[in-house]
């Protein structure tokens, strides 16, 4: 069996989200070093605040300031922080019920070690130096001795701010190592030798390219390798008029479905070597490989007469 | 009149740390053919197909469409997908059969955790405003729940280690399990949880066939009748919940009819040892109930399939005559946020 193909795959996106009125007030408050909760109909104070009562589903919006000090309700010692977490040195994850709140907030606690943490521990907010209106405006919590004088008392803030935060951008990044599996690996290995190989279904005898290891009609595994092409027929196409970001292809150009000779499924490819407005269904084409290319750069006309519609109508 | 619906076949892959050499559909096909073969059906005989998986494990949008090649989706079939554990796909298929729109259903689920880091991947299911930006991983959140349980006096570290040891000992008779036998408790991952308290990370797939009424009797010698299924959810904010309890599980079990008579078997989807303690309390399971004879998720945790496997394992015990009345539970989300309970019964013997 050939070596399993692997490649890094990074999925990265800035999640841009708008905020409701209560979330907006809470996150704006963090920017201003004010902690806000929301009152429920039965008089409880939820921190972090939400727009609907989790028990009654009633809309709630009555903001109330709570203290930057609180009590750990549960904790977990994280000796090996991971990317994106609040601290890069060992810390405790904590749920903290802030003074004046009835529910707890998840965050990190900067502590000397697990022996310095317990449920019931008194803690206070450590603010981030740079704040933008996000949960990370709280850098972390830190242990707090009530003898300390530095703990700020709530000022009775009503949650109205001149310049409220209305949205957040939450960047996300996940790293994968992608393996395409047996059938697609065999296809990619063949492409490296500038050959196009599909697989034949043992039941209906159709040849699929690129192969995915199963026949979508019969629902059975495919395994018999079949070399197809290199020539093929344009079965249908479209004219692309908008230039894609980071893509060095002049518009307009033609993107086509190409049924390679011997294949029962059309694959996609760009058509070159012919003016875009002369591409047509039935056009006979062949692949053009560039140096080091891992798949055909594009397909160009072979100069043969066009294929008869009857020969490819089943592949449309 | 309500139709009787049963699980008539169940199959699963061997669960492994990696399956690089197989695409999702390549991993799935042998399992699909296994369950169809058990029921004596062909892909074209199935009335409704429903699957569970997630793009975040695959790192690709609409990844489930790739797996559809395995079920013969051409010419067009009646098909649906949930971005959830396959247990919820089974719930959808069950309701479809109840309507009478179909007599048979194929339900499958798969997950390959090996391409990514599942602890990080699962952070993306969290509240995007207040929680996800802190990247608390799945073990960290489970550890907070475990500590709450310890503080409340419902468990201690040796008790948790006992859950781990019993699960993996049970898995010794489960040839599909990824971890079985004597497995060291190991070091802390996130204290108080040690390696042994956490599920293995792995790849796998599972499938079941459902059938209604007499059709089920013809396809299976002893169908596992689904007497009830219900699923419930907790408030999403962790700090609002009592992490030592699972009221959503208890309510789902009540609605499914679990408390009407004792069950003999419970397959619980408890990926962490501490969660078994929470679930046993919520479901009032005593020592007369055989809990996770398959080894449970501590022996094999193919994400998105592990809940469906609980239903399948419970059903298979009924098929084999080892159980008459079994409970199956599935969970999703942090700290047992969403919970599904199914009640399965065999015909009287
Ligand atoms: Zn076929």
Describe, in plain words, how this protein is organized in 3D.
The complex is a heterodimer of chains A (about 325) and B (about 350). Chain A folds into two domains: about 160 residues, no CATH class; about 120 residues, no CATH class. Chain A contains three helices and 18 strands. In chain A, strand 15 and strand 16 form a beta hairpin. The model of chain A has no long low-confidence stretch (mean pLDDT about 95). Chain B is about 30% helix and about 20% strand. Chain B has eleven helices and twelve strands. At the A-B interface, strand 1, strand 5, strand 6, strand 7 and strand 10 of A face helix 1, helix 5 and helix 6 of B. The site of zinc ion has 7 residues of chain A, from loops. Zinc ion binds next to loops of chain A.
Molecular shape of chain A: elongated
Give the number of DSSP strands of chain A.
18
CATH-level-4 superfamily name of the largest domain in chain B:
Thiolase/Chalcone synthase
Q: What is the CATH architecture annotation of the largest domain in chain B?
A: 3-Layer(aba) Sandwich
Output the CATH class name of the largest domain in chain B: Alpha Beta
Structural class of chain A: mainly beta
Percent strand of chain B equals 15-25%
Mean pLDDT of chain B: 96
User: What fold name goes in the CATH topology slot of the largest domain in chain B?
Assistant: Peroxisomal Thiolase, Chain A, domain 1
What gap, in angstroms, lies between the N and C termini of chain B?
Answer: 25 Å
| Total count of strands of chain B | 12
Radius of gyration of chain B: 19 Å
Determine the oligomeric state from the structure. heterodimer
Q: What is the count of structural domains of chain B?
A: 2
Structural domain count of chain A:
2
Radius of gyration of chain A: 31 Å
Question: Unreliable segments of chain A (pLDDT under 50, ≥5 consecutive)?
Answer: none
Largest sheet of chain A: 5 strands, antiparallel
Distance between the termini of chain A: 35 Å
């Amino acid at each position: 069996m050939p070596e399993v193909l692997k490649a890094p795959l990074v999925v990265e996106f800035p999640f841009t989200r708008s905020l409701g009125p209560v979330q907006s007030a809470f996150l704006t408050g963090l920017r201003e070093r004010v902690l806000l909760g929301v009152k429920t109909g039965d008089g409880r104070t939820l921190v972090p605040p939400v727009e609907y009562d989790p028990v009654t589903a009633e809309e709630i919006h009555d903001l109330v300031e709570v203290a930057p000090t609180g009590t750990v309700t549960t904790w977990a010692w994280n000796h090996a922080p991971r990317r994106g977490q609040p601290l890069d040195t060992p810390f405790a994850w904590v749920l903290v019920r802030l003074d004046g709140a009835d529910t707890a907030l998840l965050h990190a606690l900067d502590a000397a070690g697990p022996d310095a943490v317990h449920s019931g521990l008194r803690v206070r907010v450590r603010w981030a130096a740079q704040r933008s209106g996000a949960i990370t405006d709280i850098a972390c919590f830190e242990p707090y001795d009530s003898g300390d004088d530095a703990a700020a008392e709530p000022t009775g803030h009503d949650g109205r701010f001149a310049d409220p935060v209305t949205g957040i951008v939450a960047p996300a990044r996940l790293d994968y190592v992608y393996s395409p599996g047996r059938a697609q690996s065999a296809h990619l290995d063949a492409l490296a030798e500038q050959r196009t190989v599909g697989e034949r279904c043992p039941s209906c005898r159709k040849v699929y390219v690129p192969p995915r290891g199963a026949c979508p009609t019969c629902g059975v595994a495919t395994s018999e390798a079949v070399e197809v092409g290199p020539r093929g027929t344009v079965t249908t196409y479209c004219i692309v008029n908008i230039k894609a970001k980071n893509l060095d292809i002049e518009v307009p150009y033609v993107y086509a479905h190409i049924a390679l000779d011997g294949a029962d499924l059309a694959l996609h490819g760009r058509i070159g070597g012919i003016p875009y407005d002369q591409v047509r269904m039935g056009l006979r084409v062949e692949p053009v490989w560039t140096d080091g290319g891992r798949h055909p750069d594009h397909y160009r006309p072979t100069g043969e007469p066009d294929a008869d519609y009857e020969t490819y109508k089943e592949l449309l | 009149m309500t139709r009787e619906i049963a699980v008539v076949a169940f199959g699963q892959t061997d669960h492994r740390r990696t399956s690089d050499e197989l695409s999702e559909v390549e991993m799935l096909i042998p399992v699909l053919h296994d369950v169809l073969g058990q029921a004596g059906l062909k892909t074209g005989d199935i009335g409704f197909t429903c699957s569970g998986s997630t793009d975040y494990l695959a790192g690709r949008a609409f990844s489930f469409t790739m797996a559809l090649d395995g079920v013969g989706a051409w010419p067009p079939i009646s098909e649906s997908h949930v971005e959830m554990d396959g247990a919820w796909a089974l719930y959808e298929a069950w309701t479809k059969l109840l309507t009478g729109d179909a007599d048979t259903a194929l339900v499958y689920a798969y997950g390959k955790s090996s391409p990514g880091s599942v602890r990080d991947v699962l952070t993306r299911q969290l509240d995007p405003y207040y929680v996800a930006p802190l990247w608390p991983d799945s073990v960290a959140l489970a550890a907070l729940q475990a500590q709450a349980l310890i503080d409340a006096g419902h468990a201690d570290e040796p008790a948790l280690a006992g859950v781990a040891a019993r699960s993996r000992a049970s898995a010794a008779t489960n040839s599909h399990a990824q971890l079985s036998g004597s497995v060291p408790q190991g070091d802390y991952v996130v204290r108080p949880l040690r390696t042994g308290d956490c599920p293995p990370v792995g790849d796998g797939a599972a499938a079941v066939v459902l059938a209604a009424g007499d059709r089920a009797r013809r396809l299976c010698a002893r169908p596992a009748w689904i007497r009830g299924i219900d699923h419930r959810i907790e408030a999403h904010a962790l700090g609002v919940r009592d992490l030592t309890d699972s009221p959503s599980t208890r309510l789902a079990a009540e609605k499914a009819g679990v408390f009407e008579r004792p069950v003999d078997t419970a397959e619980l989807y408890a990926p962490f040892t501490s969660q078994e303690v929470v679930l046993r309390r919520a479901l009032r399971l005593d020592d007369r109930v055989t809990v996770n004879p398959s080894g449970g998720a501590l022996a094999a945790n193919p994400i998105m399939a592990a809940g469906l496997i609980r239903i399948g394992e419970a059903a298979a015990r009924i098929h084999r005559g080892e159980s008459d009345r079994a409970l199956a539970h599935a969970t999703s989300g942090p700290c047992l946020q969403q919970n599904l309970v199914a009640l399965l019964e065999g015909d009287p013997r």
